[in-house]
Amino acid sequence: MPDLSTKPYRIGRSKTGLGLFATQPIKKGSKIIRYFGPMLDCNKKKDDAVENKYLFQISKRWTIDGSVRKNIARYINHSCKPNAESDVSVKKRKIIIRAIKNIEPGEEINYDYGTEYFKEYLKPIGCKCDACEKKRLKKAAEARAEKKQKAAGPAKPAKGKAAETSRGKTKGKAAPKSGKAKSDKVKTSKAGAKSGKTGKAAGKDSKAKTASKAAKAKSGKKAK
């Protein structure tokens, strides 16, 4: 195993086994490590027959076998939302891993392995990167919430609140009516009082007229 004391990374435990972690701040765009190994010619049956998880295809003809232990870059794990990428030079048959984000000390270095590798190796067992793990947890939480909602059944309206609301509405409407009734009573009583006064006045007038007629009749009799 190469000495990594002077390098900005170290090999450490990851969710998927071993991984490569930053020991120093790595700036965006900077070179991290080279991915290397024996060069395989796919036009040769012997080279084309080689199979392992560390094969990195450069072109249709050339592939790097990165399974050698000196290739520390082979410890870099896949991520669907990576902080690094593979910079492939077909002419030089060279692969450099570069940072596409600022990477802080202690952060795991990762890059996207590509669609073919994902379908062949990762999809059957399920991708374990942080992005996919968060998606799984979110879906599981949503499924649990849906089950609870189905078990509880449809939400029923609160009877107490509905009754209070209907009572409040009834009281509010009844209040103006009672006010009108009181005002009508007051008006009626006033009208009654006025009519009473008018009746008394009429009685007095009729008595006065009767007395005046009697006086005239008496005076007429005396004149005869």
Describe it.
It is found in: Chromosome. The chain is built from four helices and ten strands; from the N terminus they run E-E-E-E-H-E-E-E-E-E-E-H-H-H. The chain is of the alpha+beta class and 224 residues long. It has a domain of 117 residues: Beta-clip-like (Beta Complex). It has a four-stranded mixed β-sheet with strand order 1-2-10-7, with no helix packed on it. The radius of gyration is 51 Å and the shape is elongated. The relative contact order is 0.09.
The level 1 CATH classification of one domain is Mainly Beta
Low-confidence stretches: 191-204, 210-224
CATH superfamily of one domain: SET domain
- CATH topology label of one domain: Beta-clip-like
Mean pLDDT: 79
Ends: how far apart?
Answer: 166 Å
Report the count of strand segments. 10
Strand order of the largest sheet: 1-2-10-7
Q: Please, how many helices?
A: 4
Q: What is the global morphology?
A: elongated
Q: Helicity range of the residues? A: 40-55%
Helical/strand content category: alpha+beta
CATH architectural label of one domain: Beta Complex
Order of helices and strands: EEEEHEEEEEEHHH
Cα-atom Rg, whole angstroms?
51 Å
Oligomer: single chain
**Relative strand content:** 15-25%
Main sheet characteristics: 4 strands, mixed
